[in-house]
Specification:
Blueprint (H helix, E strand, L loop, with lengths): L1 E2 L5 E2 L4 E2 L9 E2 L4 E2 L4 E2 L4 E2 L4 E2 L4 E2 L4 E2 L4 E2 L3 E3 L4 E2 L4 E2 L17 E3 L4 E2 L4 E2 L4 E2 L4 E2 L4 E2 L7 E4 L4 E5 L8 E2 L4 E3 L5 E5 L2 E4 L4
Parallel strand pairs: 2-4, 3-5, 4-7, 5-8, 6-9, 7-10, 8-11, 9-12, 10-13, 12-15, 13-16, 14-17, 15-18, 16-19, 17-20, 19-21
Antiparallel strand pairs: 1-2, 21-22, 23-24, 24-25, 25-26
Length: about 190
């Protein structure tokens, strides 16, 4: 491993063309990161990943092996992507068509996307949402939602640890530790005691 100028580490067999990388980030072998990529602090980018220019990666993000991120993808803080997660950024791709409309995709704080999942361009994956392995995510995923299948459908709610929540009255869900969540339009919110 060699140290980057900003206090991050990169494997000697990686190709890093951006200088916008936060301290404590680790970039492993056979990773290629193009110019104009922004990567936060304390990220872990595993072997055989590709990151195209224009991608934004927050702090404490984990990319497991074999992930390709295309322009228009934004990963917010604390996101986890399992091995071989696939993203797209063009809803009507054609070979050698360079005037396509870039469709942005956001994976929000604390979300986890399971291994071999495919994410359609333009999808919003909410805070602390979780997808099962092999999910084909073709529509927005609400905050704290658990989705899986092809196409991915919601099969419950999870807390910040990924544990399933249980119903606790109309529009209310409770974690194993007793935390209450209230259902709203964008998913769940944690009830704050006053």
């Amino acid at each position: 491993m060699t140290e980057g100028t900003g206090g991050y580490y990169k494997h000697p067999h990686s190709l890093v063309e951006t200088n916008q990388i936060g301290a404590g980030t680790t970039i492993w072998a056979f990773v290629h990161i193009l110019p104009d990529v922004i990567i936060g602090e304390n990220c872990n980018i595993c072997d055989h990943c590709f990151v195209e220019g224009g991608v934004k990666i927050g702090n404490n993000v984990t990319l497991k092996c074999g992930i390709y991120l295309w322009n228009g993808v934004t990963l917010h803080d604390n996101v986890f992507l399992g091995p071989n997660v696939v993203f797209t950024n063009d809803l009507r791709p054609r070979s050698r068509q360079h005037d396509y409309t870039l469709t942005e995709t956001h994976v929000h704080f604390g979300a986890s996307v399971g291994a071999n999942s495919t994410v359609l361009a333009g999808v919003r994956i909410g805070r602390f949402a979780m997808s099962g392995v092999g999910a084909v995510i073709t529509r927005d995923v609400k905050d704290y939602a658990l989705v899986y299948g092809n196409p991915a459908r919601q099969h419950g709610w999870v807390d910040e640890r990924g544990d399933k929540l249980v119903a606790d009255g109309p529009g209310q869900w409770r974690s194993n530790s007793g935390v209450l969540f209230i259902e709203g339009d964008n998913g769940l919110t944690r009830k704050v005691d006053k």
